[in-house]
């Protein structure tokens, strides 16, 4: 009788509503709510922890990124008959030598050129104001640009602006100290990752089941080779680009050729769009020399961009970066939005890695499915 009554109650609308609620609502609401609250707090704490150590994580990631870029040089030495420890030692010594050159030669020269540019700024501004193109621009706009410049300089000399600039200088000083420490950490991590790259890959492969380990190791090795080729090729292209910019800036009489070359190196690390971005930056900066110098720079650099695209890049990159151009642009935009310049730099290697996984793992798996799944 009780079972019949229960069945009849379940068939009623009220009984069906209670059964649905029992399926949706947890059996212990208080314990479930407490568990959800604890999970949310743990997620927030984890996010805060990751944000707090973001600088360390970026240094680790950048060290691994540079190590993969140095690994092709070690492989070349190995193919020439050297053992890997010897090859790693040679590459590490060359890497430290390049770092020493940057610290002892390029950085002081850059600082001197920036100081000279600041000292010569009043004369440069005065000469620019006396030029014909400046007067024509002022007449076309109908604005006294000289008064605007003078007012801007006067506002910078007020007490509030001085305090703001002083605070900014103090923050910049702490930023320089942090940048130096991060730079040293990146150098140390790069050397460590280069020397232990094979053991790191072996340790990662050991985490995979034995029957998949050989295939996983092959794919991992191909990914590291592809990423290393992309990084090494991109750095080489940026070095050539910076050398070309240095020569053009010296030819047009720029007062900061080394600064422009360094800016070109970092900007052009972003593939495809980096050269176009620096074309605008370099053209505007060279405009302070003269309009003719800016025109010469733009034409000469445009010619080099064409040579780089059709001659230099295919010879250096080869098949290392077999990534469609549209994916390069999309990846660079997404990476720059998420992580700034670093994200734009690593977008192409990550995109190449994903494509390798798709080609080597996903597509073969799909090709093996010759029949529709059973229902």
General description of the model:
Helices cover 87% and strands 0% of the residues. The longest helix is centred in the C-terminal third of the chain and has 44 residues, at 325-368. It has 375 residues and is mainly α.
Compute the average pLDDT: 75
User: How many individual β-strands?
Assistant: 0
Low-confidence stretches: none
Distance between the termini: 40 Å
How is this fold's topology laid out?
Blueprint: H1 2-11, H2 13-24, H3 29-52, H4 54-79, H5 84-119, H6 121-130, H7 132-141, H8 145-156, H9 159-195, H10 197-205, H11 210-252, H12 257-267, H13 273-286, H14 291-317, H15 325-368
Helix pairs in contact: 1-2, 4-5, 4-9, 4-11, 5-9, 11-12, 11-14, 11-15, 12-13, 13-14
Sum this structure up briefly.
The chain has 375 residues and is mainly alpha-helical. Helices cover 87% and strands 0% of the residues.
Fill in the keyword field for this structure.
15 helices, 375 residues, mainly alpha
